Amino acid sequence: MSQLNIEIKARCNNPKYIRKILQKRDADFKGLDHQIDTYFKVPNGRLKLREGNIEYSLVHYDREDISGPKRSDVIYYHPHKEAPVKELLSKALGKLITVEKKREIYYIYNIKFHIDEVEKLGSFVEIEAIDETSSITAGQLYKQCTEYLKLFEINESDLLENSYSDMLLEKELSIKKGTIERAVELSKLIPEFDDPYQKEEYEKRFSNTQYLILVAFYKNIPVGFKTGYEIDGAFYSWMGGVLPDFRNKHIARKLAEKQQKWVKQNGFTKIKLKTRNKHKAMLLFALSDRFNITGFDEKENMNESSIILEKEL
User: Fold this and answer.
1) 96, 92, 55, 91: which is closest to 76 by C-alpha?
2) Taking the chain, what is the end-to-end CA distance rounded to the nearest angstrom?
3) Which residue ranges does the chain devote to CATH 2.40.320.10?
4) Strand 95-108 with 70-77, pairing
5) In what order do the strands lie in the sheet with 173-177?
6) pTM
7) Which of 265, 1, 275 is nearest to 133 (CA)?
8) What share of the chain is helix, strand, coil (3-state, %, to 5)?
9) What is the CATH number of domain 173-312?
């Protein structure tokens, strides 16, 4: 079963207030569910098995990572509880992370409300305006979400972009200064790098200049890196990447933020980078981070042509 949702997730400092509003509006209370969500490693979207007494389903969804109302295209499958779904998917795909929570579930017509107490994260409220019959437009769903956003008096600062799984992943993430050896080791695990640079190339570029190597660790396991060095008075963001199993978890963004903070602290006012035309994801990432395209180095093979970008700090 597939459906369109428009969703809002926010931190909730006063669950009693939300609960009181829902009760005044005669919301249909479905009960309190203890849920364990197991997320699996997938290349696109998110896939989780939700195990609860009220809700038990396998869910795949693609959702915008923005604060405020966000579109989510969802596919549900309801397996038998006795079926070895978790075991099969764990062996085939690998587990990413597990989220455990206590969830109060309410409905008002097509709108579903959750008051959640999430282990290791705290209290949250979710609003889901749902179209199961293809009879409600996305605009109408957005309007429904926005109305309850105002009614619940949710502050903009409390709105969340990420899923609980992303938030838990970030809690387990640390970024530290690294070594050339570690950067070389990780670069060999990045599939986009056809012929990763060896240690000697790093040593040559970093000789007699300021440089920075950052390594991202998830539960003390290295999962990504970012390097750069001074060139012509600017900081050049050079090599970097995130292991495929850990992408779409904002690790690249965290590495970039950490790098740019260090760059500013060390007196640089401009950061540059270069990416090949074939690396579309990297180009889009840079543009979303407010880099401007300043040059193009054309090659005979257009995919190998380089796009040069700069950002004022």
Assistant:
1) 55
2) 47
3) 2-169
4) unpaired
5) 173-177, 211-218, 221-231, 234-242, 270-276, 306-312, 292-297
6) 0.70
7) 1
8) 30, 40, 30
9) 3.40.630.30
66 has a pLDDT exceeding 80 = no
- Evaluate if residue 30 carries a pLDDT over 90: yes
- Residue 183 and residue 215 in contact, taking contact as beta carbons nearer than 8 Å: yes
Residues 51 and 38: beta-carbon distance below 8 Å: yes
Where along the chain do the CATH 3.40.630.30 domains lie? 173-312
Residue 181: φ, ψ to 5°: -60, -40
Assess contact for 125 and 18: CB atoms under 8 A.
yes
- CA–CA distances in Å: residue 32 to residues 104, 162, 288: 4, 23, 40
42-51, 198-207, 248-257: which range is least confident on average? 248-257
Q: Mean pLDDT, to the nearest integer, of 65-74?
A: 80
Give the residue among 206, 210, 216, 212 at the shortest CA–CA distance from 176: 216
Percentage of the chain lying above the pLDDT 90 cut: 73
The model's pLDDT over 190-204, given as tens digits with 9 standing for 90+, comes to 998 889 999 999 999
In angstroms, how far is CA 76 from the centroid of its own chain? 21
> What is the rounded average pLDDT for all residues in the chain?
92
Q: What distances in angstroms separate CA 96 from CA 27, 36, 55, 101, one per listed residue?
A: 35, 13, 21, 17
Look up the CATH number of domain 2-169.
Answer: 2.40.320.10
Q: Where are the alpha helices (DSSP H) in the chain?
A: 15-24, 85-92, 138-151, 164-171, 180-187, 199-206, 251-265, 280-288
Encode pLDDT of 151-171 as tens digits.
999 999 999 988 898 888 888
What was the pLDDT predicted at 82? 92
Compute the distance between CA of residue 206 and CA of residue 204 in angstroms, rounded to an integer. Answer: 6
Q: Residue 44: phi, psi to the nearest 5?
A: -135, 135
> Which three-class secondary structure state does DSSP give residue 215?
strand
Tokens at 72, concatenated: 């989510």
Question: pLDDT tens, 208-232?
Answer: 999 999 999 988 899 999 999 999 8
